[in-house]
């Protein structure tokens, strides 16, 4: 299962992925792209796009937190 995803809801209220990745740098690139799109929009901010951005940022924050914890554990208990 991909670590990062952007989903839409179908007519049956089921989530359907429209973008997925396992790569943190790709997730950051996608987040930057979405944020730029939101900032460049000439109409009022889309609450749906803002929600997608918040969700992806949360996924990235969670992945980075897990990575930090893993690094701390490895520092405290090298090799396992």
Overview of the structural elements:
With 80 residues, the protein is α+β, with helices and mostly antiparallel strands. It is 59% helix and 16% strand. The protein is built from 2 helices and 2 strands. The protein has helices at 24-40, 47-76, and strands spanning 4-9, 15-21. Strands 1-2 form a two-stranded antiparallel ribbon. A hairpin with a 5-residue loop joins β1 (4-9) and β2. α1 (24-40) packs antiparallel against α2. The longest helix is centred in the last third of the chain and has 30 residues, at 47-76. It is elongated.
Descriptors:
single chain, 80 residues, alpha+beta, two-stranded antiparallel sheet, 2 helices, 2 strands, elongated
Topology, please?
Elements (H helix, E strand, L loop, with lengths): L3 E6 L5 E7 L2 H17 L6 H30 L4
Antiparallel strand pairs: 1-2
Reported for the largest beta sheet, the result is: 2 strands, antiparallel
Query: Which of globular, elongated, flat, extended, rod-shaped describes the shape?
Result: elongated
Query: What percent strand?
Result: 15-25%
- What is the chains' assembly state? single chain
> Which stretches are poorly predicted, pLDDT < 50 over at least 5 residues?
none
What are the secondary-structure elements, in order, as H or E?
Answer: EEHH
Q: Gap between N and C termini, in Å?
A: 25 Å
Placed side by side, the strands forming the largest sheet appear as 1-2
Number of strands: 2
User: What structural category arises from helix and sheet content?
Assistant: alpha+beta
What is Rg?
Answer: 16 Å
